[in-house]
Write a structure and sequence with these properties.
The protein has helices at residues 18-28, 45-55, 67-73, 79-84, 104-116, 132-143, 156-163, 175-181, 223-230, 239-254, 260-269; strands at residues 4-10, 33-39, 59-62, 76-77, 89-92, 98-101, 124-128, 148-152, 170-172, 184-187, 211-214, 234-236. Helix 1 (18-28) packs across helix 10 (239-254), helix 1 (18-28) runs antiparallel to helix 11 and helix 10 crosses helix 11 (260-269). Strands 2-1-3-5-6-4 form a 6-stranded mixed sheet, with helices on both faces. It has a 6-stranded parallel sheet with strand order 9-8-7-10-11-12, sandwiched between helices. The two termini are 32 Å apart. It is 40% helix and 19% strand. The radius of gyration is 18 Å and the shape is globular. It has 2 domains: 4-102 and 240-269, Leucine Dehydrogenase, chain A, domain 1 (Rossmann fold), CATH 3.40.50; 105-237, 3-Layer(aba) Sandwich (Rossmann fold), CATH 3.40.50. The protein has 271 residues and is of the alpha/beta class.
Amino acid sequence: MNPKVAAVIGDPVRHSRSPAIHNAAFAAAGLDWVYTAFEVPAGSGAAALEAAKTLGLVGLSVTMPLKAEAAAAADEAGEAVRELGAANCVVVTGDGRLRAENTDGTGFVAGLAADAGLSPQGRRAAVIGAGGAARAVVRALGAAGAADVAVINRTESKAEAAAALAGPVGRLGRVAADVPAADLVVNATPAGMGADAAMPCDPGLLREGQVAVDLVYEPLETPWLAALRAGGIEAHNGLSMLVFQAATAFELWTGLAAPVEVMRQAALAAG
């Protein structure tokens, strides 16, 4: 019997940890499934989704720059996809239809619970950034019952649009006022990724008792995280968000509970 196939699509995907994460999960679950990566440039997302149906793939992970294209090309979409206009997961249903989902927000909330034992319920959050990842996090914080979600971005119109996704608790934020006052501070910008030494904000604005999350996980410790930890502040990287969004995708594709710890270890080993 030929194995079932799932894949990640995007550009670039050569260094994606997703194949290691999902292949480890399939093996742990005893599934004859395989997960691979297809580099698909911007503008070809719809064609890639159609090809997934033609080739009999069971699911896709979708990364930049194809998330909006996947959302638009799918036959049906979950509520998060409809609100965000972006999909990071596609399920090929039994009748050959494509259902788009967005598991980024739920992955963030699950990762926050796993890393920090923290629920957003009743908490004040400051989110730095207003791009796709920030929008998913802001929406998830609002849905999880955060008391206040301040979105900080150089372009105020983008910050306001992102903040609206949190509902009545979302608002435009300011670094100097909202970072020190928050229970949870999230960097949803690329600052610190790779060899970039930039920081999303002055780490001196944070204090002990706050929790910080940097969605960057390449490297696992950014300069911002290193500075925060040196100051005694609880700070976590974005690896758990990656693992938990993948775990939700696994469950959507297979109908089985995801082996999360196996996936986490595979993600670490793939770095």
